């Protein structure tokens, strides 16, 4: 009885999460984390003695995923401060700045140094730029007259694992920098990071992708890039070598991030906000159910969170959402929110029964058995409490009038239903005081799906927008409608507009048909079984993921691969159906979908890379013996400009449908529609105030 | 050629205790090739490197004595085989110290703190220790392979790392009052801290100084004349004034040996105290060198005249008038094979092989007797081969190894092959014309690439290339060096054909030998440096890496080309490099023109310039937009500035400026209108603030917010006025008012407002908002005004179950009532609903 009860969660966990599916090994991405950690230690050690660390606040999150405060302390970090305007008081001779090469940071640093020299304080300054040094920074330091006082070096922080199959560069502003500022630094840095990935796990034999910036990135990858230190995993022993790299730039599919995400993790991001895998939640949800439990790493990581939350209001606490420490989360994160409640109650029942097992324990041995499991049960109990609490926080927010109205408008727009009525519905939302990002998202969505908004209607809604949220947002509207972004367009376009923009319009209705974006789902099936990636948006399939399917799972674009299995109950999916799964077809580029691809704006490319001379002689000989029937391969997907949790969920779903192909999702950062709008609207207003992050 | 060389043991000598053997290998005989070392200051380079000589100005030398005199300000460099490699004339300030870097460059430091790094072709790089050092003067320095530590006139210590010309670091203040008696440096890579440590002999003690602190070791045996750390940095040899040599660990915790040098029976002062590997010390006088072993035992070696000893990691090299010797402890493997009476498996294997060559049957017996240890014996013979100097014995040992492995079932011969290859390389560089007496362990330690660089720096390109291809290395570095040397040597002529020809020769060679992976940029730079611009351009065309191409193009003032290449490379860092460089050099007008003329191809550069200027140089950005008639961007910039300003008048001015920019573009009439509204709103807000005596903040709020604030602060009339002024639609106005009145809980006014006319937003909005704001009771009063079918639900929303029940009853909806009963939160209500239900019948 006990055995049966406790084995249930693990098997379910295997099938419904992406973790250990099929027992096929995937790439060990922890290598990247270790490399990042080691590089940080080397950087710190290069400065002798105790040091004060001044940290770029936007790096704290990414660093928190790589290291913990204890490690920094161990390597001589005495005190830590945020890099913020205002004077710096340091008790140590050595001051280390760690930041991204942004001009505003460099100016703060220069100011602090100038203050010190005015007070004739002697400090030794070292500036570590992430991920590489920059002439721009040296130049500004020179202009500010402090270059001589600073040793400039770099800390090459690149891909950070944020989940077992997701790695991220954690650039917050990648999208804005590319499509608003036209600053292509991100592309080059991505190329460097992908190159390290190639050096670590073996070359991408084929680079396939869509989008103008994506194409630029691919071209960079085929050219010789500067040498970078990297760890190397022997490609012959690598469990799942790359079969290809798919690069999609965010602009190819702007619709997806504009829609409200409906998966559990996605919804948390939409409504509460997830930053660098951390979510801020009330402390009460994190307290262990009973006495503090040492075996409970998932509930709270005080050391890791200390780095990010120096001083915060008493009530909330940052918590890492990680499937590795929280199996329940692994089970829930990719579910459509509508089925989360059911899943939670099922887990609650099971847990209850597990606890009851105690009553059945008669002999001492049985009792000891139970006590042994108690720790695990408590961890699970705690996780259950956390996720029930989170769901309770989400539910009322999904019940508000504005939320449902926004969903309704979105659904009507993607279905092209009464499009002009939707514009007035958006105006109504403005009147009701919906928040700015939501309205801006809907506006963009309306423009993209309809191919432009009628001039009069557009001017009206823009006027409403500016009156309601402030005239200072005019640059935001200009940015959204200017190339290369062009996601708010008028119809017909103004005469002066270059004709190229008109050509670049997404033929949404045609694509909706050819890529089967809109699925007439029945709600019954949705709850129990995800039968197409469209489950993530309750019936709408993200274009980006469909494009990935065009390369890596061609049948999935045309029909639902899961329909055949739908006779199985979800619980019986485990080993029974695994054997039925088809083996993934080899990568043959866009074959079969060239016509559709050509209608979507942005360059389409498919590059076969030559194997480097050194490995060419031996690598294929062995792998070709194994392929295609035995060797599991990894398809890397890189989102230039960020991807959403929903897309990750959908890609995991795609990955579960076949044997022999793993997905490694790489991105410049995790985004949502709100975060995109926020970054574009960023009007440079920043709050003052210096926080001390004393350990 | 197979003359039978002397048996290896003939060079051996046992320490008096009889257990440890040292051997002295004669590397080269160099009669009369070197001047009398006694008259010179000498610096030797490790790993079989050359020695540098400068006349010791403190000695008097008879004119025309040996014919080797040369002026004081010259440095001569000789190979260990006595061949002159280089003659440097020094025209700078007085030389304080010279020494060698790890990559065989000669460092020369003068009293002004200027130091130069000379390669063996007398090309140099010059750096300085900074102005402070120049002022104070440098009085002494210690040069190690990867840096130097200088002692300034103010008795502080300056450290230079890595020979890249980096800024010197000041170490902790040693607190000296006079220069130390002697001092030494332990290089960073030999310390646990990975930072340099300086040992200073002051008074009777030793001070240990690093970049953090100064530690007195509290020793009373000084003062010390010589401080000499061992090659691995773990031990110290100290020689004090009474001639007592003391060996101690660098943490001064373990005494290892003591030896009184006065008992050695030498005349005159001690010349040098040098380590022989990490386990013995060589003390030299004129005519004599004494090797002090670990337990204080000694071996004596006699020389003619002065000698110079260079510590190596596995021994010590001694250069005298006549010979260049190498003294080392006999390596374990050699010892095992050749020690008289040795019965080790390797000795027996070697013996067996010798018997075999004599066709003696003893061979078989011997092999049998060592069968279990045969593999180890084979390995030992291979290793011993590496330790032998004579090819004859190398070959014999390798043959013995090969013979031995024939008896093994399975043996991986890669060690054997590698050793054979290494020895072939080593023997060729040891040849006296090349003169690099590198031992096998030094070769292992310093790497093959290091050896290749050393060969190329001697212009021995062919040998370097042969070795590269023999060991299947990429020949890039050799080719690169060859090409630079070729360019430097070739006569610079104006004829274009000359450039063409030379370029072709280089390109051909590169493509033939270098698989096209060689960087042309370095060679092009070299050509540029020697004034061959035409050749440089031609070579640069072959370069594929933009990051290498661009800096040179900039130096050559090929501005546009540099910018284009930078943009094409996709590396924004490179683009910034070019932009910032050009911005500094060109007049602003031509700078802008350069970028604008580039059109679409240079667009990324233009955008990067804007990103930079927006943060750092707004003035320039304004000019840039203005000069290019970019009205929209100019307007956006004005708005962005407005958002950063605090002065209200300035904000209004900026907004008006933005309006003006927009109005100049006929497609932007909408934006211009909006900016006009914005400016008007700001003026109204200023007035509102004045009217409310500055108690209420309005400035910078949106229209909706302004209306809201007016209402919240009881300025209803003003709210209406703002509404009219900006034509705020009724719907939005109603929502704002609803929200505002709810926020201040003015339910009376709300009621009045609701009755003022028919609500354009319906009354359901009232109910919902009031409920959301936490006023269900007030909300419930508006339900009657909503659509009839919705009422029941709305009542439930207001938590007013009775009213909901009543509503059901009035409409005769029995089913609805049942539903309500199921949903209601407590039994009391459920009971009431039940009664209502029954009364319905």
Automatic annotation (TrEMBL), chain A:
**Its family?**
Belongs to the STXBP/unc-18/SEC1 family.
Would you tell me the protein name for this molecule? Vacuolar protein sorting-associated protein 33A
The record's section on InterPro entries has: Sec-1-like_dom1, Sec-1-like_dom3a, Sec1-like, Sec1-like_dom2, Sec1-like_sf, VPS33_dom3b
The alphabetized list of GO BP terms reads:
vesicle-mediated transport
From TrEMBL, chain B:
Q: Where is the signal peptide?
A: none
Cite the GO molecular-function annotations of the record. Answer: actin binding
What are its GO cellular component terms? endosome; HOPS complex
Protein transport: present as a keyword of the record?
Answer: yes
Q: What residues does the Vps16 N-terminal domain cover?
A: 8-417
Keywords from the UniProt entry: Protein transport, Transport
Q: Specify the Vps16 C-terminal domain's residue ranges.
A: 518-826
Q: Which SUPFAM superfamilies match?
A: Tricorn protease domain 2
InterPro entries, per database record: VPS16, Vps16_C, Vps16_C_sf, Vps16_N, WD40/YVTN_repeat-like_dom_sf
One GO-annotated biological process of the protein = endosomal transport
Pfam families reported in the protein's UniProt record: Vps16_C, Vps16_N
Q: Does the keyword Repeat apply?
A: no
The entry assigns this protein to a family as follows: Belongs to the VPS16 family.
Question: Its biological function?
Answer: Essential for vacuolar protein sorting. Required for vacuole biogenesis, stability and to maintain vacuole morphology.
Protein name in the entry: Probable vacuolar protein sorting-associated protein 16 homolog
């Amino acid at each position: 009885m006990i055995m049966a009860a406790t084995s249930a969660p693990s098997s379910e966990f295997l099938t419904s999460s992406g973790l250990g599916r099929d027992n096929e090994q995937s790439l060990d991405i922890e290598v990247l984390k270790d490399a990042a950690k080691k590089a940080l230690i080397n950087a710190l050690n290069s400065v002798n003695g105790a040091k004060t660390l001044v940290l770029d606040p936007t790096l704290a999150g990414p660093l928190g995923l790589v290291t913990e405060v204890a490690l920094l302390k161990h390597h001589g970090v005495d005190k830590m401060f945020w890099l913020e305007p205002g004077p710096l008081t340091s008790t140590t001779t050595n001051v280390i700045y760690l930041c991204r090469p942004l001009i505003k940071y460099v100016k703060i640093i220069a100011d602090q140094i100038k203050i010190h020299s005015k007070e004739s304080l002697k400090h030794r300054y070292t500036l570590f730029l992430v991920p590489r040094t920059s002439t721009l920074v040296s130049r500004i330091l020179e202009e500010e007259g402090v270059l001589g006082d600073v040793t400039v070096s770099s800390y090459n922080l690149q891909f950070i694992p944020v989940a077992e199959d997701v790695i991220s560069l954690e650039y917050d502003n990648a999208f804005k920098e590319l499509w608003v500022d036209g600053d292509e630094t991100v592309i080059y840095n991505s190329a460097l990071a992908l190159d390290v990935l190639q050096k670590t796990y073996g070359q991408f034999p084929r680079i396939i992708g869509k989008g103008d910036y994506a194409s630029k990135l691919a071209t960079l990858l085929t050219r010789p890039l500067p040498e970078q230190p990297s760890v190397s995993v022997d490609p012959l022993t690598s469990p799942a070598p790359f079969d290809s790299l798919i690069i999609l730039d965010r602009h190819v599919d702007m619709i997806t991030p504009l829609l409200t995400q409906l998966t559990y993790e996605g919804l948390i991001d939409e409504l509460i906000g997830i930053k660098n895998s951390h979510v801020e939640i009330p402390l009460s949800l994190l307290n262990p159910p009973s006495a503090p439990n040492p075996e409970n790493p998932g509930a709270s990581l005080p050391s890791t969170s200390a780095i990010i939350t120096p001083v915060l209001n008493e009530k909330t606490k940052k918590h890492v959402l990680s499937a590795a420490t929280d199996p329940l989360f692994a089970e829930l994160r990719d579910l459509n929110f509508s089925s989360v409640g059911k899943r939670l109650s099922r887990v609650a029942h099971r847990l209850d029964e597990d606890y009851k097992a105690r009553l059945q324990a008669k002999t001492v041995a049985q009792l000891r058995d139970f006590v042994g499991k108690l720790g695990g049960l408590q961890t699970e109990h705690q996780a259950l409490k956390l996720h029930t609490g989170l769901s309770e926080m989400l539910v009322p927010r999904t019940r508000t009038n504005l939320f449902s109205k926004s969903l309704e408008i979105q659904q009507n727009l993607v279905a092209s239903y009464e499009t002009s009525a939707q514009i007035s519905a958006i105006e109504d939302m403005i009147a009701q005081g919906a928040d700015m990002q939501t309205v801006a998202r809907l506006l963009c969505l309306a423009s993209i799906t309809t191919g432009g908004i009628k001039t009069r209607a557009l001017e009206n809604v823009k006027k409403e927008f500016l009156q309601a949220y402030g005239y200072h947002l005019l640059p935001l509207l200009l940015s959204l409608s200017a190339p290369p972004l062009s996601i708010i367009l008028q119809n017909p376009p103004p005469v002066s507009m270059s004709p190229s923009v008109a050509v670049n319009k997404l033929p949404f209705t045609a694509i909706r048909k050819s890529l089967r974006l809109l699925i007439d789902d029945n709600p019954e099936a949705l709850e129990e079984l995800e039968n197409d990636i469209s489950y993530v948006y309750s019936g709408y399939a993200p274009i980006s993921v469909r494009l990935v399917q065009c390369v890596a799972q061609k049948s999935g674009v045309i029909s639902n691969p899961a329909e055949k299995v739908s006779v199985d109950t979800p619980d019986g999916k485990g080993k029974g159906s695994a054997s039925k799964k088809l083996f993934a077809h080899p990568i043959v580029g866009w074959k079969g979908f060239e016509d559709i691809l050509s209608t979507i704006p942005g360059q389409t490319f498919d590059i076969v890379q030559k194997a480097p001379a050194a490995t060419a002689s031996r690598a294929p000989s062995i792998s070709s013996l194994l392929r295609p029937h035995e060797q599991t391969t990894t398809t890397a997907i890189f989102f230039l400009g960020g991807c959403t949790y929903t897309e990750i969920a959908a890609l995991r779903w795609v990955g579960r449908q076949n044997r022999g192909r793993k997905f490694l999702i790489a991105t410049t950062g995790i985004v949502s529609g709100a975060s995109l709008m926020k970054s574009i609207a960023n009007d440079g207003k920043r709050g003052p105030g210096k926080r001390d992050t004393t350990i | 050629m197979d003359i039978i060389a002397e048996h290896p043991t003939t060079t051996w000598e046992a320490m008096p205790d009889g257990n440890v053997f040292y051997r002295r290998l004669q590397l080269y005989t160099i009669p009369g090739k070197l001047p009398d070392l006694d008259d010179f200051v000498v610096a030797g380079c490790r790993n079989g490197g050359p020695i540098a000589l400068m006349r010791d100005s403190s000695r008097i030398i008879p004119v025309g004595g040996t014919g080797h005199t040369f002026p004081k300000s010259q440095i001569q460099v000789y190979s260990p085989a006595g061949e002159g490699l280089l003659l440097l004339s020094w025209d700078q300030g007085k030389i304080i110290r010279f020494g060698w870097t790890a990559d065989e460059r000669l460092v020369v430091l003068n009293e002004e703190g200027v130091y130069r790094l000379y390669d063996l072709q007398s090309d140099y790089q010059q750096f300085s220790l900074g102005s402070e050092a120049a002022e104070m003067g440098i009085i002494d320095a210690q040069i190690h392979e990867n840096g130097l530590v200088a002692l300034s006139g103010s008795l502080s210590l300056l450290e230079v790392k890595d020979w890249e010309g980096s800024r010197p670091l000041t170490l902790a203040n040693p607190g000296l009052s006079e220069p130390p008696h002697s001092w030494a440096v332990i290089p960073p890579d030999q310390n646990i801290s990975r930072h340099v440590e300086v040992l200073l002999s002051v008074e009777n003690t030793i001070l240990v100084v690093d970049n953090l602190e100064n530690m007195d070791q509290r020793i009373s045996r000084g003062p010390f004349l010589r401080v000499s750390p061992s090659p691995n940095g773990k031990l110290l040899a100290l020689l004090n004034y009474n001639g007592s040599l003391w060996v101690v660990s660098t943490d001064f915790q373990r005494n290892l040996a003591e030896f009184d040098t006065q008992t050695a029976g030498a005349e005159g002062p001690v010349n040098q105290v040098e380590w022989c590997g990490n386990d013995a010390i060589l003390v030299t006088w004129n005519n004599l060198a004494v090797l002090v072993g670990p337990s204080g035992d000694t071996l004596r070696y006699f020389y003619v005249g002065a000698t110079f000893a260079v510590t190596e990691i596995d021994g010590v090299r001694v250069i005298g008038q006549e010979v260049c010797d190498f003294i080392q402890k006999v390596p374990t493997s050699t010892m095992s094979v050749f020690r008289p009476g040795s019965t080790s498996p390797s000795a027996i294997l070697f013996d067996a092989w010798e018997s075999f060559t004599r066709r003696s049957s003893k061979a078989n017996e011997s092999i049998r007797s060592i069968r279990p240890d045969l593999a180890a014996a084979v390995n030992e013979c291979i290793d011993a081969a590496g330790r032998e100097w004579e090819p004859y014995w190398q070959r014999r040992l390798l043959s013995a190894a090969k013979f031995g492995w024939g008896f093994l079932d399975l043996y991986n011969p890669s060690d054997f092959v590698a050793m054979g290859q290494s020895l072939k390389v080593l023997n060729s560089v040891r040849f006296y014309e090349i003169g690099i007496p590198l031992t096998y362990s030094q070769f292992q330690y310093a790497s093959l690439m290091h050896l290749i660089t050393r060969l190329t720096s001697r212009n021995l390109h062919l040998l370097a290339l042969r070795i590269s291809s023999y060991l299947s290395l990429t020949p890039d570095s050799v080719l690169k060096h060859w090409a630079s040397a070729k360019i430097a040597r070739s006569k610079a002529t104006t004829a274009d054909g000359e450039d063409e020809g030379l370029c072709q020769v280089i390109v051909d060679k590169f493509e033939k030998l270098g698989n096209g992976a060689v960087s042309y940029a370095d060679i092009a730079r070299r050509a540029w440096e020697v004034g061959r611009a035409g050749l440089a351009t031609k070579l640069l065309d072959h370069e594929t890496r933009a990051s290498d191409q661009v800096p040179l193009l900039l130096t050559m003032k090929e501005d546009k080309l540099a910018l284009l290449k930078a943009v094409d490379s996709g590396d924004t860092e490179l683009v910034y490099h070019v932009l910032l460089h050009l911005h500094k050099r060109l007049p602003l007008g031509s700078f802008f023109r350069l970028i604008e003329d580039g059109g679409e191809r240079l667009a990324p550069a233009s955008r990067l310039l804007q990103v930079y200027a927006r943060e750092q140089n707004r003035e320039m950005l304004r000019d840039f937009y203005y000069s290019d008639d970019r009205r929209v961007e100019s307007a956006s910039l004005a708005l962005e500035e407005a958002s950063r300003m605090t002065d209200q008048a300035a904000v209004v001015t900026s907004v008006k400026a933005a309006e003006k920019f927009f109005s100049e573009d006929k497609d932007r009439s909408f934006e211009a209108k909006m900016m006009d509204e914005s400016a008007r709103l700001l003026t109204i807000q200023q007035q509102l603030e004045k009217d409310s005596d500055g108690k209420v903040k309005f400035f910078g709020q949106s229209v909706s917010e302004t209306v809201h604030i007016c209402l919240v602060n009881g300025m209803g009339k003003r709210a209406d006025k703002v509404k009219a002024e900006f034509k705020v639609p009724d719907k939005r106005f109603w929502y704002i008012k609803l929200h505002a009145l709810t926020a201040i809980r003015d339910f009376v006014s709300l009621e009045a407002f609701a009755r003022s006319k028919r609500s354009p937003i319906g009354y359901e909005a009232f109910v919902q908002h009031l409920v959301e704001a936490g006023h269900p009771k007030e909300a419930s009063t508006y339900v009657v005004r909503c659509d009839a079918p919705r009422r029941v639900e709305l009542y439930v929303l207001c938590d007013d179950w009775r009213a909901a029940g009543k509503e059901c009853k009035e409409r005769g909806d029995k089913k609805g009532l049942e539903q309500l009963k199921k949903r209601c939160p407590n039994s009391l209500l459920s009971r009431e609903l039940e009664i209502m239900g029954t009364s319905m019948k």
